[in-house]
Amino acid sequence: MTRETRSLPALAPGAVDTAFVIEGYDEVVPHDTVWEDHSHPFHELLWNERGATSAVVGARIWTITPALGLWMPAGTLHSGSAPAGTWFRASFFGFRTTSSISDVPVAVEITPLLRLLLERLGEPGLSDRSRAATEALVLDVLTPSPRELLVQVPTSPLLRPIAEAVRENPADQRSLADWAAALRVSARTITRAFSAETGTSFVRWVAAVRAQHAIDLLTRGRDVETVAEEVGYRSASAFGVAFRRTTGLTPGTFRPV
């Protein structure tokens, strides 16, 4: 399959003078697409009409979906990827005309109201008065979400083999005890390291990696039973419970309509 790599500049906040308050962009990518490290002079809200994409900042990887977007503050160096057929959207917020909702990237729930307002800004012939009123409403309802599809990838020599193995094969069934034996350290040592590097436990980290991989498969139209097996669960029901515990949503939320 053809893969496209795109290069964009790394620009500081406000480096380019932009008069707009909110400007929208959308695209259906025809090929698997990767965006190399770049940054924007304006704030950006990333969300999808169809499919799932990834955004990477340092060692943190967010999954972006139609239900959950990502706020990227101006000047934040990030990369991204999208599988072929993804319909992604981006709303750009002027650096000097709007305030960032966060100094760091944060998830944003794409509620029906927020979606409706953002879509209205793209309507042709929208009067200046209506645009200003709609932009004000967007800024009023735009808030960080307590839910996010985020994986913090550990990079220490101790945890790197675990991270690489699980991300390569989310169905890897090795337990904490198995990894401790393989790495010749105590399970407590791995537990402490995971907590320090990722802010979560080994079990929850594996569940998050599996959820991200599952979302990618689900948005490509794979059935729940197949996805459950591919990410390491013995049944669709067990997968559903773990998925809801991690994401707060059901697997069916991410399947194409």
Describe it.
By secondary structure, the protein is an alpha+beta fold. It folds into two domains: 3-141, Regulatory protein AraC (Jelly Rolls, Sandwich), CATH 2.60.120; 154-254, Homeodomain-like (Arc Repressor Mutant, subunit A, Orthogonal Bundle), CATH 1.10.10. The protein has eight helices and eleven strands. It has helices at residues 112-120, 128-141, 160-168, 176-183, 187-198, 202-219, 224-230, 236-247, and strands at 3-6, 22-28, 32-38, 43-50, 53-57, 60-64, 68-72, 78-82, 87-93, 106-109, 150-152. A six-stranded mixed β-sheet has the order 1-3-8-5-6-11, with helices on one face. Strands 2-9-4-7-10 form a five-stranded antiparallel β-sheet, with no helix packed on it. Helix 1 runs antiparallel to helix 2, helix 4 (176-183) packs across helix 5 (187-198) and helix 6 (202-219) crosses helix 8. The longest helix is centred in the last third of the chain and has 18 residues, at 202-219. The protein starts with a strand and ends in a 10-residue tail after the last helix.
Write the SSE topology.
Elements: E1 3-6, E2 22-28, E3 32-38, E4 43-50, E5 53-57, E6 60-64, E7 68-72, E8 78-82, E9 87-93, E10 106-109, H1 112-120, H2 128-141, E11 150-152, H3 160-168, H4 176-183, H5 187-198, H6 202-219, H7 224-230, H8 236-247
Helix pairs in contact: 1-2, 4-5, 6-8, 7-8
